[in-house]
């Protein structure tokens, strides 16, 4: 069996590594668009302690402590400049995205999986289909610009808010969510530490605020300085660091109503991306990768495996999309709730996803199934 994976991000890497472990005799190649050094983004949160939670990709590394993960149990929501402290409900693990991706790539290479960098595949005609039994499209939201097959063209929706992903040396010991009124405008920060020296700091605001504050007309540095002033109470004199390639943008949701076509199958953000306010994208990438490994290891052939995979994966990614969309829309319409008392505001925040079956149970159920091979 020969497998080609397009994209060396968490989805493609966890899939390749887990499949190689289950079927060492199968040949797996990965092609990656970037040069192998750059990884976009600062830190992400993942569920649980490495080694104890199979949806946490650090669980598949030999020495996860080298990545200096940070554990977060508390949640702080600031509204009307009043902090409300709560529990996150689950233990969360903050980690640097770059370190995680590099460690997963090292793990794949140590298992004999080849990774070819600076090798973007974008068109159907570029796919070496005759050489492989299965081609896994794990190219993230970049899948939007790929033309592999009409059947796997994504539905693309853009969020209404503008957002930007900064890093900062200010250390946020809890998951922080800050709603700040600034003149007529509302800015929202999502912040938490992901190493003992750095935190993620994602900021969002409405399109109207973005235009009124002239953020689109400023240099990256001026924009970071402006936002740092808005959140000076939280940043305590620390600045915001901009990463090239991570400017202001609208969140892109990619969705599909199918997972495979012929030999091609989708994984990770390429299959379904979901708003960062629920922080589940990497977790979903891991669980869906495990479902594909399970199907390939238990079904008689590739077509049967892809049918079985789709039956399991589609309801899960649709649930993920429901949670992510509900959350995104709550943030996009927050101006309607800013007048609430802090207690009412927290209640509304908590209720935003309550109409849907909970994600942790759905993830745990699918993982239990996937890991029985
Ligand atoms: C602001 C923000 C905050 C987030 N916070 C969290 C969080 O806290 N927790 C969480 O779990 N998730 C979070 N996410 C989501 C998470 O980053 C993604 O869900 C996750 O990276 C998906 O992994 P992936 O492998 O599918 O895609 P990616 O990580 O995007 O990897 C895709 C890879 O494919 C490569 N590629 C692209 N096109 C091609 C091509 N044509 N040929 C070859 N290679 C190609 C890319 O270079 C990249 O290396 C966040 C996302 C954002 C935007």
TrEMBL record:
Gene3D superfamilies (UniProt xref): 3.30.9.20, FAD/NAD(P)-binding domain
SUPFAM superfamilies: FAD/NAD(P)-binding domain
Signal peptide: none
PANTHER family reported for this sequence: OXIDOREDUCTASE-RELATED
Protein name: Tryptophan hydroxylase
């Amino acid at each position: 069996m020969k497998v080609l994976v397009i994209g060396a991000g968490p989805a493609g890497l966890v899939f390749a590594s887990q499949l190689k472990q289950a079927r060492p005799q199968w040949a797996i190649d990965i092609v990656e668009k970037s040069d192998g050094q750059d990884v976009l983004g600062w830190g992400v949160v993942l569920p649980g302690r490495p080694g104890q939670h199979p949806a946490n990709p650090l669980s598949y590394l030999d020495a996860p402590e080298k990545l200096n993960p940070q554990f977060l149990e508390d949640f702080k929501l600031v509204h009307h400049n009043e902090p409300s402290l709560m529990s996150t409900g689950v233990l969360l693990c903050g980690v640097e995205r770059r370190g995680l991706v590099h460690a997963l790539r090292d793990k794949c290479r140590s298992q004999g999986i080849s990774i070819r960098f600076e090798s973007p595949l974008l068109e159907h005609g570029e796919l070496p289909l005759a050489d492989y039994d299965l081609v896994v499209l794990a190219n993230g939201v970049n899948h939007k610009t790929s033309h592999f097959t009409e059947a796997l063209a994504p539905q693309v929706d853009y969020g209404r808010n503008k957002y930007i992903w900064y890093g900062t040396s200010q250390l946020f010991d809890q998951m922080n969510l800050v709603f700040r009124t600034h003149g007529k405008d509302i800015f929202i920060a999502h912040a938490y530490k992901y190493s003992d020296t750095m935190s993620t700091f994602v900021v969002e605001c409405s399109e109207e605020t973005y235009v009124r504050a002239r953020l689109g007309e400023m240099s990256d540095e001026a924009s970071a300085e402006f936002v740092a002033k808005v959140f000076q109470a939280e940043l305590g004199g620390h600045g915001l660091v901009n990463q090239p390639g991570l400017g202001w943008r609208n969140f892109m949701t990619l969705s599909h109503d199918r997972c495979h076509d012929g030999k091609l199958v989708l994984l990770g953000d390429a299959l379904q991306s979901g708003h960062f306010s629920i922080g589940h994208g990497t977790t979903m990438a891991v669980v869906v990768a495990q479902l594909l490994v399970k199907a390939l290891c238990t079904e008689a052939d590739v077509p049967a495996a892809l049918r079985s995979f789709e039956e399991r994966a589609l309801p899960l990614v649709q649930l993920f999309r429901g949670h992510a969309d509900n959350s995104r829309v709550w943030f996009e319409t927050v101006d309607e709730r800013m007048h609430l008392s802090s207690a009412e505001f927290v209640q509304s925040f908590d209720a935003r996803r309550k109409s849907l079956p909970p994600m942790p149970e759905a993830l745990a159920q699918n993982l239990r199934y996937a890991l029985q091979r």
